[in-house]
Amino acid sequence: MLVQLVGGLPLVTVLIMILFPFVCAALIPLLYRRLRRVAHLGWFVLSVPIILFLLLARYIPQIAEGKVFIHTYEWIPSFDINFTTYLDGLSMIFALLITGVGSLVILYSIFYLSTKESLHHFYCYLLLFMGAMLGVVFSDNLMVLYTFWELTSVSSFLLIAFWHHRKASRAGARKAMTITVFGGLAMLAGFLMLYVSAGTFSIREIVANVEVIRDHTLFIPALLLILMGAFTKSAQFPFHIWLPDAMEAPTPVSAYLHSATMVKAGIYIVARFSPVFGGEAIWFWLVSGVGLVTLFWGSFNAVRQTDLKALLAYSTVSQLGLIMSLFGLGSVGHYFGYAESSILYTQASFAALFHLINHSTFKGALFMMVGIVDHEVGTRDVRRLGGLMALMPVTFTIAVIGGFSMAGLPPFNGFLSKEMFFTAVLAIRDVEAFSIADMGLLFPILAWVASIFTFVYSMILIGRTFFGKLKPDKIDKKPHEAPVGMLISPIVLCLFVVGIFFFPNVLGHYILEPAMASIYPTFPSASELTPHIHAWHGFNAELLMTFGVVIVGVILFKTFDKWKPLYRVFSQKYAFNTYYNRMIEFGENSSITLTKRYMTGNLTHYFVYIYVFFVALIAGYFIWSEAFAFNFAQDSAVESYELILVFVMMFAAVWMLFAKGRVTAMLLNGVLGYSIAFFFVIFRAPDLALTQLVVESVTTALFLLSFKYLPDVMPEIARKRVKWSNAVLSIFVGATVTLVGLAVVHYDKFKPVSLYFNDAYELAGGSNIVNTILGDFRAFDTMLEVVVLLIAGLGVYTLTKLKPRKEEADHENQ
């Protein structure tokens, strides 16, 4: 049911949810000095996601009934770019995660971050990111979505580099931004191709006309480029290398960006565009194949990590691969269409959505648990940890719940979605499409092997940290339980981990079912696509695979020291990080070499480069396109006084080249300017003539005044070859400008632009066309100039305010 209203609370609510974090982020720099004297800044920021979450929760029953709220706010309608808010089942899931987990992360950060930190910067960046993510999931227009998409990259860069005094933090932020922005630009190209194919930027309209655009030549290139953006943002193989380095960010950032929000943005794009590209063989193989490889490679590398956050980083890569592969498997349902037999394959997408939520709960809790260990013990290195179970019992409980859920064990929510994952990879073997029968067996094999490694690193996370003997000589602090405030957020997430296991169908009906309707909009009933979730299905193949995972996983965990040398086979020489570093180094060296070649410090060289490029590009294009066409039959006659002015300008220009004094050259340049003013008078443009006279008079006077006090310099003695080269280049430039001017006047293949401005009075209310062009039609350009000045002014104001006040400096010294 589509609810499309001009006004009304639901529409205003969606707009508020997007803008509210940005408004609050803008207020933080203005208010933080006063707020920090009252209480921790985080308490005020915490109200933002809580309010947004409560606003969203009001519409869960309506979304569960199949309603969709949409409204368009006109932005640039002439280019089909409008701010269209879109609230449906799929955007509801992500919005609840963004605001719900965001609330818990901010609460956690209040107790995790010291008040000596730059908290106003931290919370400002966090709210910017929150608003950008909400903009991504609520946007129906591709260009608006892309704008928010890149804003997530910028804000995440600021968050990852929050501890900018650390070299690793700066490097991790640069790597994350480089890879994700590169993918974002590829996705932008894909969006533009979709626009060319469908004639609209609206995702809804593209989905509605998908049968028309499937045969377009740009359909497959658009598919590939959009997947590039999704894969880079969601850290899919081989673009996963940015995520482990991003763990240099503070733990609240890792818990928010890298478990519940930013890395899920690529997942959202795949889910949102499944109705468009689902059913294509290349979409199926890329999404499911890349997802499975990422699942295996992430879990395999997580086992070898000694830093707990690095372990969780690779586990996040692995879990994202699992979700991605499920969406790929579920895309088979689009190929077959609505049929009873295809329901089995659509359940893979249901499992993906289910695990999306489950992963956010247990991984968020685990990141916070690791942050607690690091905060209270002083290290995250598993080689220095052990024996913390008795000293940190609550943290240990959180680790067990989160770790067992990640390993896919009951009674935790990860077990339910993992079993559904096994069902999906087993069912795909019987699909008679996309040549799956030839490689169908690889799906369950890769899934099972990756699940074994998932079990192993989950046991390492728990066993190496909390069991064994305490190593007081290897840790920096005396271990003790964290403050209650730091434990609240992970405990709440753990309650969800357990609660979802016992009441999964509440989540399935109110949250997952409407999201399935968004992924399969052509299917008549979303309720038929939503399976009833059971914790027990009897002794079937999925349960046997789980038993195998536990048995083999325990064996590998117990014998880890014996087979750990296997990782030495994978030399760092051939690691993806090594290739990335080489690529960056090659780019830097190449740019330095190229820059040194043209940045010679000689102004003449710079003009030569500019003019050669100008002549080659402009004259070359006009010759290639046969645009040099002249017809002088209809030209006005040239009067004698016009010829006199032309000869005066020619004489002044040539004499200027041979003038020995700077004052003489400047006066000759003034002759050129005044002659142009006379031409404006002849051509009946007195306002332009007056402007030219004023500007020429002022500039000539200023130049003469400046030259009077400049010291004399020795004249530059150039070789004859250089002089002749400059003369030839000057002739070519002058000829190009003259011929282009004549060609534009006589070009008759297109209507002249001036015809549009003939209606200046009707379009802009101005009777003077020239003034109207300068004051109204050129207003957008003027606005950009004003914005530049505003930004410069803000920069100056910021620099003047960076110096702390005397009372603040005294307070900090105390």
From TrEMBL:
Subcellular location: Cell membrane; Membrane
Every NADH-Ubiquinone oxidoreductase (complex I) chain 5 N-terminal domain range: 76-123
Membrane disposition: Multi-pass membrane protein
InterPro entries: CPA3_Na-H_Antiporter_A, MrpA/MnhA1/PhaAB, MrpA_C/MbhD, MrpA_C/MbhE, ND/Mrp_TM, Proton_antipo_N
Transmembrane segments: 12-32, 41-60, 89-110, 122-138, 144-164, 176-198, 218-243, 255-275, 281-300, 312-336, 348-373, 385-407, 441-463, 484-503, 543-560, 606-624, 640-658, 665-683, 689-707, 727-747, 782-800
Domain NADH:quinone oxidoreductase/Mrp antiporter transmembrane, chain residue ranges per copy: 139-429
The protein's name: Multicomponent Na+:H+ antiporter subunit A
Species in which this protein is naturally found: Lysinibacillus parviboronicapiens
